[in-house]
Amino acid sequence: MVINETTIDVRYAETDQMGVVYHANYVIWMEVGRTKLIEQLGYKYADLEKEGYLSPVLNIHVDYKTPVRYGQKAIVRTWVQEHSRVRTTYGYEIVHEDGTIAVTGQSTHTVVKKDTFRPVAFSKIAPEWDALYHEIKAEK
């Protein structure tokens, strides 16, 4: 299993009046982690879009454990949890610098043709990328 770790410097704008990261920002950090994982593997999501495909979110789940606050650093850990013909589920842990878990989550995506929004098999449009996901996924 390959895990990407991306460090986030918590900005004031990402927090609420209590100085705690606003809950929706964790989803944005998950996207940052997912993008960085894809880049770590040698691919770019933007290239997929240039080829006429999109990868919409089908489902997202977030469990909040401990708050992250303004001025702290958060580490986003991202990996491929599951991968099938038409769906990929990414796993996430967002942790404090000391390793304490702040958030866990998963997001499930599919790939569709941009012009029709019809699902396509990932193996048909990106066979090497698809094979790599099968190789590194957590599910065995």
Q: Can you put this structure into words, describing what you see?
A:
The protein is an alpha+beta fold. It has a single domain (4-136), classed as Hotdog Thioesterase (Thiol Ester Dehydrase, Chain A, Roll). Helices cover 27% and strands 34% of the residues. It contains four helices and seven strands; from the N terminus they run βααββββββαα. It has helices spanning 23-40, 45-50, 122-125, 127-136; strands at residues 4-9, 53-54, 57-64, 73-83, 88-96, 101-109, 112-113. The strands form two sheets. Strands 1-4-5-6-3 form a five-stranded antiparallel sheet. A two-stranded antiparallel ribbon has the order 2-7. The chain is elongated. The mean pLDDT is 96.
Distance between the termini: 10 Å
**Largest pleated sheet:** 5 strands, antiparallel
The number of distinct structural domains comes to 1
> How are the strands of the biggest sheet laid out side by side?
1-4-5-6-3
CATH superfamily: Hotdog Thioesterase
Strand percentage:
25-35%
Count of alpha and pi helical runs: 4
CATH class: Alpha Beta
**Named CATH architecture:** Roll
Tally of strands: 7
The mean pLDDT is: 96
Q: Give the oligomeric state.
A: single chain
Overall radius of gyration: 16 Å
CATH fold label: Thiol Ester Dehydrase, Chain A
Report the helical percentage.
25-40%
User: Judging from the principal axes of the Cα atoms, what is the shape?
Assistant: elongated
Could you give the order of the helices and strands? EHHEEEEEEHH
How would you classify the helix and strand content by structural class? alpha+beta
Unreliable parts:
none
